[in-house]
């Protein structure tokens, strides 16, 4: 169904748009987590309602010795350390910086020794098990390999739980279910205490973030909205030798990926990866505050690639600060309030604008993201009685007042752009009331 939509002239000019807008289907309004948002505290214990101990992970992958102070100063609150380092190698630095640890493939000794340590967030086992096992099955000709590896994961998870019943145990899967293996992807991504996978969309031929939106949404639905969902975002660029060319995101693209994930169910983010000699050996340049062209081993970055890495580090730091300010809203229940979303623009996907409305103690917070690289004009219409004033919360912490009339307001979202809107009620009743 289509209807004409009159956007304010300023918004049309700002977005470079004209013409009619469609009325999207329910994909535009994400309504999960109305009963509470599944997340954890800093030690991985499950929670469903925001409180003093609530923790929204902002992690970085492959942290190295000596890097944690800079990582903390950039607003990250947890790290995945390079697999060549044991927990004991990093625990002093973790304690000094107050960062949480996701340990990949912990030993029995590490689980027993650090089960009660306040710096542990969780134990991570298999990496991309669905796609990696699919490849190994093709190479080996063993059709039972997936079941064997899954059973090994279940057994290992049970053994870790016997030693440490508190911390979550999980796998970090890839983004795709290979042909015929959808049920296995679902099984891997629902069997851990946390559902976690990666998604790197900035590759040749990719023009939107709809695949990421669908994979995160699938993970959230798999667990009946009862388990945290952590998504690993693309914060790297490929160097010569990488099998699939991938490019370093710009800061606004990283922000768009983060809000795409959050709006579709993510309750924690992991940024891949901290730039080091290890990432270069994998033909990847990650992000860091002082990225050089040469790390002393592996592929070298060009001056432009090293500069983009440093720029994205600054962008990630700004995003971390924004997410920290928004955490009370992100972990608050989704509002039980009907509203409409319209858009205008040259859209490739059927529903390019995705939103989620949070009911907080002081009002509503509306999250919106444009899944496409082309700019879009957007309008939102809520019940007039609950919209008194609207402010756009800008990424730098400032706010811009938007004109609202009869419950409706509009804005322009750039390519992969995200918008955060603070809505104050015009009635005396609490916002978020179900009356």
For the CA atoms, what is the radius of gyration?
A: 22 Å
Biggest sheet architecture: 8 strands, parallel, barrel
- Strands ordered across the widest β-sheet: 6-7-8-9-10-11-12-14
The assigned structural class equals alpha/beta
- Give the assembly state of these chains: single chain
Return residue spans where pLDDT drops below 50 for at least 5 consecutive residues: 1-25, 428-435
> What helical percentage do the residues reach?
25-40%
Note the gap between the termini: 30 Å
Number of contiguous helices: 11
Overall geometric form? globular
Description:
By secondary structure, the chain is α/β, with parallel strands linked by helices. It has 11 helices and 23 strands. The strands form 6 sheets. The chain has an 8-stranded parallel beta barrel, surrounded by 6 helices. Helix 2 links the parallel strand 6 (58-63) and strand 7. The longest helix has 28 residues, at 303-330. 49% of the residues are buried. The model is unreliable at 1-25 and 428-435 (pLDDT under 50).
Task: Please specify the SSE layout and strand pairing.
Blueprint: E1 2-3, H1 9-15, E2 21-22, E3 39-41, E4 46-47, E5 54-55, E6 58-63, H2 68-73, E7 78-81, H3 87-97, E8 100-104, H4 108-114, E9 120-127, H5 129-140, H6 145-163, E10 169-173, H7 182-191, E11 195-198, H8 210-222, E12 229-234, E13 237-238, H9 251-263, E14 268-272, H10 277-281, E15 284-285, H11 303-330, E16 340-344, E17 353-360, E18 363-370, E19 376-381, E20 389-393, E21 399-402, E22 408-413, E23 418-424
Parallel strand pairs: 6-7, 6-14, 7-8, 8-9, 9-10, 10-11, 11-12, 12-14
Antiparallel strand pairs: 1-2, 3-4, 3-5, 13-15, 16-19, 17-18, 18-23, 19-22, 20-21, 20-23
Helix pairs in contact: 5-6, 8-9, 9-11
